[in-house]
Design goal:
The protein contains three helices and four strands; from the N terminus they run ββααββα. It has about 150 residues and is α+β, with helices and mostly antiparallel strands. It has two domains: about 110 residues, Tetrahydropterin Synthase, Chain A, CATH 3.30.479.10; about 30 residues, no CATH class. Strands 1-2-3-4 form a four-stranded antiparallel sheet, covered by helices on one side. The termini are far apart.
C-alpha cells in the first residue's frame, strides 16, 4: 500500500507576461504537496515539515515574481513555478527524511499543473502518462549519472 500526506499552502504574488511590469497582475497561488517517506506507523514530523515549507514560500509572498532570481530568463508561469518549487522543496524535505512525491500548483481552480518524479496520480490521457513516464526516466538517468560521477 502506498501512503502519503497531502498539504495545501497559499501565497499571494504578482507576475506578468513577457516581463511587462505595467501589466502585472496578482494571484493567490495554491500549492498542494504530496509527502511521504516515513516508516509505516510513524507520524510525519508535521511541525518541522510545515516550518520548512512556510519559510520557503515566505520568500515569494507579495513579490513580483518576474524580478526574482529563481525566474531569471523564464516566465513565472505555473509550469515554471511548479518546476522551481518542486526541485527546491524536494531537496529541503529530503534533508529531514521526507519525500516530496508530487507538487500541484494553480493560480485559479480551472488549471492545475502537476510535477512529480514518479507516477502518483492519474493523468488525463495515455499520451500524458507516457510523457510523465519519459520525464521520470530522464530524471532517473540524470541522477544515476550524477551518482556515478561522485
Amino acid at each position: 500500500m502506498f501512503q502519503y500526506y497531502v498539504y495545501k499552502y497559499y501565497f499571494n504574488a504578482e507576475h506578468s507576461f513577457r516581463n511587462q511590469r505595467e501589466k502585472a497582475h496578482s494571484h493567490t497561488f495554491t500549492v498542494v504537496l504530496y509527502i511521504g517517506g516515513i516508516e509505516r506507523g510513524q507520524d510525519i514530523p508535521f511541525f518541522e515539515m510545515d516550518a520548512i515549507v512556510k519559510a520557503y514560500f515566505t520568500n515569494f509572498r507579495g513579490q513580483y515574481l518576474n524580478a526574482m532570481p529563481e525566474f531569471a530568463g523564464k516566465e513565472p508561469n505555473i509550469e515554471n513555478m511548479g518546476d522551481v518549487f518542486y526541485e527546491a522543496l524536494w531537496e529541503r524535505l529530503k534533508e529531514v527524511g521526507l519525500a516530496l512525491y508530487q507538487l500541484d500548483i494553480s493560480e485559479n481552480p480551472l488549471c492545475v499543473y502537476q510535477v512529480s518524479d514518479r507516477i502518483l496520480l492519474p493523468t488525463m490521457s495515455m499520451e500524458e502518462s507516457g510523457k510523465n513516464f519519459e520525464n521520470i526516466l530522464k530524471r532517473k538517468r540524470r541522477l544515476m549519472a550524477l551518482k556515478h560521477r561522485l
